[in-house]
Amino acid sequence: MPGPDGWDDDAGATDVVRGVPFRPMSISEMLDGAIAGIRRRPRTTLGLSVAISTVIQVTSSVAAYFFIGNEARDEVTPDVLLESLGAQVTLTVLGLVLSAGGILLMAGLMAPILGRELVGMPIAPRQAWRDSRPRLGRLVGTVAAVMGVSLGALALPVVPFFALIAVDAHPAFGVVAGLIGFPVGIGLMVWLYILLVQAVPAVVLERRTVTGALRRAVTLSKGRWFRTCGTLLLALLVTVFMGFFALRIPFLFVQLVFFGDASGDGATMGALAVDTLGRIVSWSVVLPFDAGVIALLYMDRRMRREGFDLELRSRGRSAAAVVASGPADDAAREDGFIDLWRTDPVPARPWTGANP
């Protein structure tokens, strides 16, 4: 249990109590740890998740209304159906991009929660926000960088396909370009996303710059890309089942019963409102799970690659002194927690006169 200084003196013996094991984790332990983090801090994690999910889903719904409107509901002519299909594909891609960005943002906000849970430190109300706020701008920049690099890798190989269509080239050339470009683009996007995903926890916990966090992610991912991919794939399967089936079925039922045969602006708005509410509820539950898995992947790599758990155990009371020293205010304790994770030299504090 945590001692009076906030440090867990018997790390390793309290893995069950802690919920997040203070040692290298198996894939199942990371999945369980993400759930444990939500269960032990429900107001913090779900509060952040509801805020992020609401912004994402409302944005998607507003875009859906203006992209499709009533034409897709009232018309059955081929032209309108084709236009609606194109709009729906666009909206699906937009929703996936926004959801992936929301998961990364949530992972950065959850990293201090799970980090404190990992080392057995107490988590005061609003502590996650106080830990993340100094690096919120860089966190957003890192999320944008990871998404931008991944989407750029997807777009670049398919440029010849769209260029051939634009110049009205022979269809055979377009088919060949598409058959090569799309698989290559998807493969590069997945590879880079998984390679860089650990930059999000790093930019918050290690107080790195955006480029420094990206380089850090590449270093941590070396030799473990397939394990990271498998862990995220399992988390995705859980997310798809919970988010798209179990949690949304009641809302889809309500939408079908009350607005299935209706038409007009009122029916469109009502159906869209019910669908939006269903997506907010479902994503608010699954978003912190995916984000927690990403944060725990980063911590697991720190322990496996750098012996982070062994380092803190060997530091023992000196690590506790970093957390507890100085003025007993929130800012000093936040700095002490972050210092446990940083890998770069930390300047001496004026009240201690020594480097931690």
Shape: globular
User: Got a strand count?
Assistant: 0
Share of β-strand residues: under 5%
Secondary structure: helix percent: over 70%
Structural class: mainly alpha
Work out the helix count: 17
H/E element order: HHHHHHHHHHHHHHHHH
CA radius of gyration: 23 Å
Low-confidence stretches: 1-17, 72-82, 317-335, 346-356
Distance between the termini: 23 Å
Summarize the biggest pleated sheet.
none
The averaged pLDDT comes out at: 77
SSE inventory with pairings:
Blueprint: H1 15-18, H2 27-40, H3 42-67, H4 71-74, H5 78-118, H6 127-132, H7 136-155, H8 159-166, H9 171-196, H10 199-205, H11 210-221, H12 225-246, H13 249-259, H14 265-306, H15 308-315, H16 317-324, H17 330-341
Helix pairs in contact: 2-3, 2-12, 2-14, 3-5, 3-14, 5-7, 5-10, 5-14, 7-9, 7-10, 7-11, 8-9, 10-11, 12-14, 13-14, 14-15, 16-17
